[in-house]
Amino acid sequence: MIKKKLSSLLHPISVTCLLLVLFALPPNVHAQESRYRNLPEGAKVRLGKGFITDIKFSPDGTQFAVVSSIGIWLYDAHTSEEIALLRGHTGWVRAVAFSPDSMTLVSAGLDRTVQVWDAKTGQHRTTLYGHENFVYSVAFSPDGKTIASASSNEIRLWDANTGRQENVLARRASWTYTLAFSPDGKILASGDWEGDIQLWDPSAGRLMKTLKTNWGFLYGLVFSPDSATLAASGSGTTILLWDVGTGRQLSTLMFGDSTRGIPALALSSDGTILASGHRDNKVRLWDVHTGGLKATLEGHTSDIQALAFSPDGEGTSGTTLVSASEDNVLHFWDTETEEFQTPLTGWTESFTRLALSPDGTTIASGGGSQGNFVRLWNSHTGELQAVLDGHTDVITAVAFSPDGTALVSADWDGTMYLWDMSTQERHATLSGHTGRVFAAVFSYDGSRVASISHDDTIRVWDTHTGELQVTFDRQGADGLTFLPDGSLRACGGWKGPETLRVWDVYTEKSVTREIGRGLDPGLNTVVAFSPDKKTVAIGTHRGGISLWRADTGEHLRYFTRAHAHDVTTLAFSQDGSLLASGSYDNTIRLWEAATGEQLTLLTGHTNVLSITRAAAISTVSFSPNQTSADFDTAAGWHLASASHDGTILLWDLAPFLTQMPWDVNNDGVVNILDLTFIASRFGENSPDLNGDGIVNILDLTLTAQHLGE
C-alpha cells in the first residue's frame, strides 16, 4: 500500500473537518448494531444487510441463522435480537446447516469453500477446501459426524470433527443445488439442475437410485420423520411425494393457479404440516396425512426464497414458520392461527446506483433485482430515512440537484421522476425515454436535467415544469456533464468505442479531436468528467483506466496496476486530486489523478457472481467538500461504494492517506514504541526512513523529531 500525506491531496479544510468528525465518533459506539458489525478494514458504516438466500433454526431452538449475500446473521430465536454477523467467505454465501447438537454451523459459498463456525461464539473454526466450483448446498448427518457439501458435478463428504475429506460422490455434469439427509442417516438425497433426484448410501458412497421429474431445476427436498417419504419441489408447479424404499411416486400436491416454480419446502417438527414457498409471493400449508391444502399465507411482495420451521422444544413452538422472499423481509407465521408477527427487515437487494446530497447528509440509492424504489439514508448514522416508491422497474440512475432540493430517479423502462426533497413527494414525471436510462445530471442552476438512455437519445428537461425541452442523438455517449455557462458536454463513442470524443450536445460540434486511441477495439467504456470539466477519465472492459484532456483530446496518462476485469464505475474527488474506480474484480482502487499512482486498494464487498447476479462495484462517489461551518455535522467518511452484494459501504480514507512513515507501528501516533521498533531493526533494510538503504541512527533521529505527532 502506498501512503501519502492527505494534505498533499485534499483541501486542508476538508481534512480538518473529516478528522474532527472521525474523532467525535467513539470507536465502539453502535458496536452491536448491524451497520457497524464486522466491517472490512477502512469502512466506517454499512448500509443494508445483503439479500437473503437461506434460513435455518438451530435444533435446540435457541438461534436462527439468516444467510445473506454478505455473510450469516445470527439471531436469538426467543427475542429475534441480532447476535452476530459471521463473515469469512469471499463470495456469496448460499446455504448453512447446524449440527444436531447446535454447537457447530457450516456454510457453503460461491467462493468454492465450506466454512465451519462455532455456533455459540461465532468464532471461525476452519475452512474446507476441495471444491473446484461454486458450493450451493451443505448438510449435517443426523449423528453429527459427517458434513455433506455439493457443487457442480460432485458431492463431497467430510469428517465433521477433523475436517478431513472422506469421500467424493461422482455425478454427471449437472449442478447439484440441494442436499438432505434422511432422519435415520442412511440416505443422502441430492437434487440437480436437470430435475433429477439421486438417493445415495453415504456410508458406502454409492448411488442407490435416481428419481426422475419433468422439471428443469430441483430446489427443495424434505424427508418425513420416519425417513420413508421424500417430498420434492422445483421449477414445476407441483410438489411430488416419493416412497424412498421403492422409488415409487406416491402422490402429487396440486393447485389451480400456476406459480412458476416452488423454490422452498419445510416440514414441521411433528411431520404433520408441509410448507411450500412459491413464485407467486405466497406460502402454502399442506396436511401431510390427507394431502389437502390447509391454508395460503399472503404478505410477501415477491417470490419466496426460503422457509424454516422452528423446532418443538423448550421455549419454542414447532408451529412457528419463518419465510423469506426476494422482498428481503422475514415473516414469522403461527401455522395454527395463520397470523404473522412483526416482520424482520433490513436486508437489501443489489445496489445499482447511489447519489450524495450536496450537504453530504443524505445518500440516495437505487436497487437491482426487486429494487424499483429509491432509498434515502442518513449518511452520519447509516439509518434508513425514507423510501420513494412509484417506479415499476429497476432503478438505473439517481442524482441530486446542486442545491439538494430535488432528486431525479430513472429506471430500466425509461421512466424518470423528479422528487421534492422537502416533502419527499413526486414533483413531476419526465416522459419520453423508451429504454434504460443510465445517466442523469442537473445543470448548475438546477433548472434543467439531462439524461442518456439506451434508446439512443439524450434528452433535456425543464425541472420546474417537467416538460421535455429537446432531444438529441446519443451518438454513443457514455458520459454527460453541464458546464457553468449552461452548455452540455457529452463524451463517448463516435467512430466506435475504441475512439471517443467530447462534444457540445446543443450545437453537436466536437470540442476535441478523437480521443481514446489505444483503447481495445469493440469495448464499451465508463466515463467520468473531473469537477472542473477539464479532464475525462475512461475505463474499459478489460480493466484499463486512462485520463484525457477534455478540451483538446490530449492523452495525459495510463494508470498502472489497473483492474483485472471490467471497470464499472469512476469518480473524481471534489478537488479533482483523487480518482476512485470500481470493477467486476470486486475491488475499489484509489488513484492520485496527477500521477496515476495507486494509493490504496479497498476490499470488503462480497463477490456475488452467479447465474443471475453480477459481481461488481456498481457505483463509487466521494463525499462533498466540507467547510469549517460543517464541523459539527459533517459525515465521518470520504468515499461511498455501492455493490451488487446488497450493501453500500462508507469508507474513511484518512488512515490510508495520512499515515506518516515514522509511525512505523501504525498506532496513529509517533512515540517511544516507534523508536524501540526502529532500534530493534538496526542493520536491516526496513524501516529505512531516510532512504540510505539501511536502518541506522539516522532513521532513529528522524523519527525522534516527530514524537507526539
Plain-language structure description:
The chain is mainly β. The protein has 3 domains: 248 residues, YVTN repeat-like/Quinoprotein amine dehydrogenase (Methylamine Dehydrogenase, Chain H); 294 residues, Methylamine Dehydrogenase, Chain H (7 Propeller), CATH 2.130.10.10; 45 residues, Dockerin domain (Type 1 dockerin domain). It starts with 11 loop residues before the first helix and ends in a 5-residue tail after the last helix. The protein is globular, with a radius of gyration of 28 Å. The strands form 14 sheets. A 4-stranded antiparallel β-sheet has the order 1-56-55-54, with no helix packed on it. Strands 2-3-4-5 form a 4-stranded antiparallel β-sheet, with no helix packed on it. It has a 4-stranded antiparallel β-sheet with strand order 6-7-8-9, with no helix packed on it.
Helix content: under 10%
Tell me the name of the CATH class of the largest domain: Mainly Beta
Task: Assess the beta-strand content as a share of residues.
Answer: 35-45%
The major beta sheet can be summarized as:
4 strands, antiparallel
| General shape | globular
Give the uncertain stretches in residue-range form: 1-32, 626-635
CATH architecture classification name of the largest domain: 7 Propeller
Q: What's the CATH H-level homologous superfamily of the largest domain?
A: YVTN repeat-like/Quinoprotein amine dehydrogenase
Compute the number of strand runs. Answer: 56
Helical stretch count? 4
Integer count of domains: 3
Gyration radius, rounded: 28 Å
CA(first)-CA(last) distance: 21 Å
- Biggest sheet, spatial arrangement of strands: 1-56-55-54
Integer average pLDDT = 85
**Structural class from helices and strands?**
mainly beta
Kindly report the CATH topology of the largest domain. Methylamine Dehydrogenase, Chain H
